[in-house]
């Protein structure tokens, strides 16, 4: 028979060890903290590549075929100091910006139509299947017939190089938006462009940024290739034309200086422009590691 008053266990306390008795993690050495910086690791890679370039050029010992890294840097400095290279870069970037912005606007309009209507989806699938495999530079003869030898032809091929990869990435990002977010947008009464801007675009931003980077890379190399072919834009030549002219005049160090400027602009856009945009958006929001 159970007792009406069960026994009560006596209370007791467990003494805790003082906080100072616990092991304290030591800060990382200065070398480890420096090595954790991405810019330092990338800088070391560039230094190693420059050293290999210098050694290979000295072993080749033919400035006409392969100038040394120091000769290329000297030619690059002279081109920047004289202003010639700066002017060529300005011309190329102005044309690039026009074609890139136009391609981004058209890609956004096409993907908005695709997620809004069935005919828009069929239109996007059909056009991307037709034109995405087509190299932009292959449209250059047609662009010359339509727009002549000038900026219009360059902008046309740039739009083609940006439009299709960006549209595909954006549409894939829209398709990957969770259904719960879609339902939340519909519950708030969002439709059409407001639904795309307030629900789909923020949720699909990692894919959109990836498409923007791919479109930028395609547009930049397409522009340089197009300028190498016919070069002049509204009576002036850009960076690709600068490379082509110096190749004809056998100034190989200037040719490499122009190529180095192409690479430097690509590095700046990727590591400053897009990296900053990702840090302020998708990484800050926890959408990307």
Topology order in helix (H) and strand (E) letters? HHHHHHHHHHEEHH
The CATH architecture term of the domain at 81-280 is Orthogonal Bundle
Main sheet properties: 2 strands, antiparallel
What is the CATH class name of the domain at 81-280? Mainly Alpha
Number of strands: 2
Q: Radius of gyration in whole Å, from Cα?
A: 29 Å
Class computed from helices, strands and strand pairing:
mainly alpha
What percentage of residues falls in helices of 4 or more residues? over 70%
Low-confidence stretches: none
Q: In brief, what are we looking at here?
A:
It contains twelve helices and two strands; from the N terminus they run H-H-H-H-H-H-H-H-H-H-E-E-H-H.
State the main characteristics.
mainly alpha, 289 residues, 72% helix, two-stranded antiparallel ribbon, 2 strands, 1% strand, flat, MetI-like fold
What would you note in describing this structure?
This protein is mainly α and 289 residues long. The chain has a domain at 81-280: MetI-like (MetI-like fold, Orthogonal Bundle), CATH 1.10.3720. It is built from 12 helices and 2 strands. It has helices at 30-35, 38-60, 69-82, 84-116, 118-131, 140-147, 151-175, 179-187, 192-203, 205-229, 239-248, 252-280, and strands at residues 232-233, 236-237. It has a two-stranded antiparallel ribbon with strand order 1-2. A hairpin with a 2-residue loop joins strand 1 and strand 2. Helix 7 packs antiparallel against helix 10 (205-229). The longest helix has 33 residues, at 84-116.
